[in-house]
Amino acid sequence: MHSWIDGQPATAVNLHNRGLAYGDGLFETIAVHSGRPSLLELHLERLALGCQRLAIEADFPLIRDELTRYASQLGDGVAKLILTRGDSLRGYAPAAGSPARRIVQGSPLPAYPAANAEQGVRLFACQTRLAEQPLLAGLKHLNRLEQVLARAEWQDAEHVEGLMRDTQGRLIEGVYSNLFLVRDGVLLTADLSRCGVAGVMRAALLQQASVLGIPFEVRDLELADLEQADEVFVCNSVYGIWPVRECPAHTLDWPPGPLTRKLQAVARTLLDT
After folding, report:
1. Which of 2, 113, 204, 244 could connect to 9 by a Cys-Cys bridge, CB 3.0–4.6 Å?
2. What top-level class of enzyme does the UniProt entry assign (predicted)?
3. Domain spanning 3-107 has what CATH number?
């Protein structure tokens, strides 16, 4: 399916686009099922937060309309929205009056092995650390070089995801997912106020935990928390939830547990509606 730029089919971006030059923008990766964008409201909420933080002016009714129309034509797949500050000449200062650019791309749904969800995945312990920058923490901004470096650390098929920590050694997230632990029936996930991406599926699961009466904590997580966990899983808004069965670098392993299985079913429902 053709990509759209500002609502029109297009195959090229302006060479002066600030997203290309400086990573000056945000993006959302949205699962599309039967022509409907999944978790659209949460995606737009995160995008709005990013625009507020980066002072990018965007027309959200227009963005919603374009995503809805694009998804209806895509059918089943993944829609990626890239929102950049627009075009400008050389220099960090943005050009006055330059409108934000909206780029929407479509791709097929990834063909992940069923074993990832059923039996669980192995985590690679990445050496690349996430730098602390509270102004950008939580945002899905266009600079993903830390994730690029981390993903380059392994090439084997045995590891499906990587475990990322910050410069102080705190557990933060996966390379392209958020991390949850379960200990004594309590759901634990990392505080992302210093670094990391506040994932849409993470937000949806925390909302559902409140509805279902599942106790949860958002706090700093250390390696000791991982070692003492009863269950571990990773999540994102495309595949839902994968149990983590092993982190070989730390000789740790966990069987997929009952709370993970319960939330897997919740995630499937959220993505299908």
Report:
1. 2
2. lyase
3. 3.30.470.10
Reported as a pLDDT band with limits 50, 70 and 90, residue 251 is confident
Amino acid code (one letter) for 93 = A
Query: How many other CB atoms sit within 10 Å of the CB of residue 74?
Result: 22
Q: What is the CATH number of domain 114-272?
A: 3.20.10.10
pTM of the model: 0.94
Q: Tokens standing for 248?
A: 């070989």
User: Looking at 116-239, which runs of residues are DSSP E strands?
Assistant: 121-130, 159-166, 171-174, 178-183, 186-190, 216-219, 231-236
Parse the chain into domains and list their residue ranges.
Answer: 3-107, 114-272
Q: Rounded to an integer, what distance in angstroms lies between the CA atom of residue 24 and that of residue 18?
A: 5
Q: Render 223-254 in DSSP notation, one character per residue.
A: HHHHHT-SEEEEEETTTEEEEEEEEGGGTEE-
CA distance 71 to 37: 6
Q: Is 226 exposed, middle or buried (0-12, 13-18, 19+ CB in 10 A)?
A: buried
